[in-house]
Amino acid sequence: MTDNSRVDGAKDRLVGKAKEVEGKLTGDKARETQGKAEGLLGKAKEKAADLKDDAAALADDLKDKL
C-alpha cells in the first residue's frame, strides 16, 4: 500500500509542478496556487508512506526483541 501512496505522491508532485509553472508562464495566479497546493499534497503523501514504513520496521524490531 505504501508503494501506491509513494507513486500517487510523486504523481501529484509532478502534476503540481507542471501546473505551477504553467500558471507562472500564463500569469494565472489561481493555476499557480493550485499547482503549489497539489505539489504539497504529493509531498505529504510521500512523507506519510515513509512514516508508515518506519512504523512497520519499528514494530518488526520490537517483535524480534520479544
Descriptive overview:
By secondary structure, this protein is mostly helical. The protein has one domain. It has two helices and no strands. Helix 1 runs antiparallel to helix 2 (29-65). The chain starts with a helix and ends with a helix.
Summary of the model, kept short:
With 66 residues, the chain is mainly alpha-helical.
List the helices and strands and how they pair.
Elements: H1 2-26, H2 29-65
Query: Helix and strand succession?
Result: HH
What would the principal axes of the Cα set say about the shape? rod-shaped
Q: How many structural domains are formed by the residues?
A: 1
Unreliable stretches (pLDDT < 50, length at least 5) are none
Q: Structural class given helices, strands, pairing? A: mainly alpha
Average pLDDT, all residues: 93
Any idea what the radius of gyration is? 17 Å
Q: Give a short account of the largest sheet.
A: none
How far apart, in Å, are the first and last alpha carbons?
Answer: 27 Å
Number of helical elements? 2
- The amount of helix comes to over 70%
Q: What fraction of the residues are assigned to beta strands by DSSP?
A: under 5%
| Count of strand segments | 0
Which terms summarize this structure?
single chain, 66 residues, mainly alpha, 2 helices
